[in-house]
Amino acid sequence: MSTRSIVITGAGGQVGLEAVDIFTASGWQVTACDRSRLDVTDRKAVRDLIGTTRPDAVLNLAAWNAVDLAESEPDGAFAANAMAVRHLAQACREVGAHLTHVSTDYVFDGTKDAPYHEWDPVNPRSVYGRSKAAGELEAGPDALVVRTSWVCGARGSNVVKTVLNLAADPDRTLSFVTDQRGCPTLARDLATTLADLIDDRHSGIFHVTNGGAVSWYEFVQQILTTAGYPSSRVRPITTAEMDPPRPAPRPANSVLDHAALRLCGLPPMRHFTDPLGEMIDELRRIGSVPLP
Ligand SMILES: NC(=O)c1ccc[n+]([C@@H]2O[C@H](COP(=O)([O-])OP(=O)(O)OC[C@H]3O[C@@H](n4cnc5c(N)ncnc54)[C@H](OP(=O)(O)O)[C@@H]3O)[C@@H](O)[C@H]2O)c1
After folding, report:
1. Tens digit of pLDDT for each residue in 209-258?
2. Ligand 1 in contact with 107 (CB < 6 A)?
3. pLDDT reported for residue 1
4. Chain centre distance of CA 234
5. Is 104 in the pocket of ligand 1 (CB under 6 A)?
6. Mean pLDDT (the chain, rounded)
7. 63 C-alpha vs ligand 1 centroid, how far in Å?
8. pLDDT at 65
């Protein structure tokens, strides 16, 4: 089979960095575009790059992820998370490329008392969630849309690294909420499943997260004990006790059911505790965060 080619946008982000490695190792010819190489909000630049490279596939990992800032700067969020996907979808149609777009658990309102599956109606409560829901529509019916949640990778900023940096100060007490639940997802595992789905040219919506649903408080307990700290370093609070409160509301339940993977006969991803351990081992090797 001839070498297949893929353009990866947002290649400098935590999932992007893993995706570039995984597609390259799998023999794809990868055009890795961080923001300096391709600003996805620039329609002409998107059409020029995709029209010139004529890839078999495009994986869009560029996103405005500043959830709270989006409340006061909605145009920024909609430009990157919705309009940019319109540009990418048009450019993909013009060259016959398969588009994959990555979305979020924040498209749901969090009131369901069971995990959300792919056919549950969306009802985002934040500007960020609304911009990502709009992006799903802009991707179009032939695209693969992968919703994920609580993403953490060794390269990039995320709650694992934040917790480990804060925990290094013995006088610091951490407080995390017990009333928001979701599925932590390690960036490398997500990129691996993205590669499997793209390899097989899937389309439609898939929920892709690691296994294991926890509250933020329970997740932070797991991060601490995996790194060698006592779990008592974190104190449970409720969302109402957060001081100051965050501008953007978060879904209380953002646990995603992986119905589409299951119904396609694809294996579920492993429990998050294994890849979390691997990530913390990697951070220890790199020495990028203080660890006991
Ligand atoms: N992180 C999470 O917890 C989470 C949860 C659910 C879903 N997701 C989704 O998963 C996907 C990957 O997220 P991630 O965690 O890898 O995020 P990330 O680390 O923040 O990476 C996003 C990348 O997109 C780039 N970017 C932003 N605006 C751009 C633009 N206009 N043109 C080109 N690049 C642009 C950013 O560059 P700069 O650094 O220069 O801004 C950054 O490198 C996104 O679709 C995100 O919405 C993430």
Report:
1. 999 999 999 999 999 999 999 999 999 999 999 988 899 999 999 999 99
2. no
3. 60
4. 25
5. yes
6. 97
7. 4
8. 96
pLDDT in tens, 76-97: 999 999 999 999 999 999 999 9
| H-type alpha helices, the chain | 14-25, 43-53, 67-72, 74-78, 84-95, 127-139, 159-167, 187-199, 216-227, 259-263, 273-286
Ligand 1 geometric centre to CA of 17 (Å): 11
Ligand 1 neighbour 102 (Cβ under 6 A) = yes
Among the listed residues 84, 86, 117, 105, the one whose alpha carbon sits nearest the alpha carbon of residue 263: 117
Is the Cβ atom of 184 under 6 angstroms away from ligand 1?
Answer: no
Closest atom, ligand 1, to C-alpha of 62? 24
Assess contact for 61 and 15: CB atoms under 8 A.
yes
Instruction: Map out the domains of the chain as residue ranges.
Output: 5-217+239-286
pLDDT of residue 75: 98
Class of the domain covering 5-217+239-286: alpha beta
Question: What average pLDDT does range 120-146 have in this prediction?
Answer: 98
Q: How many distinct helices (H) and strands (E) make up the chain?
A: 11, 12
Instruction: Using alpha carbons, select from 103, 70, 65 the residue that is nearest to residue 85.
Output: 103
Q: State yes or no: is 106 an active-site residue.
A: no
Residue 15 CA, closest ligand 1 atom number: 16
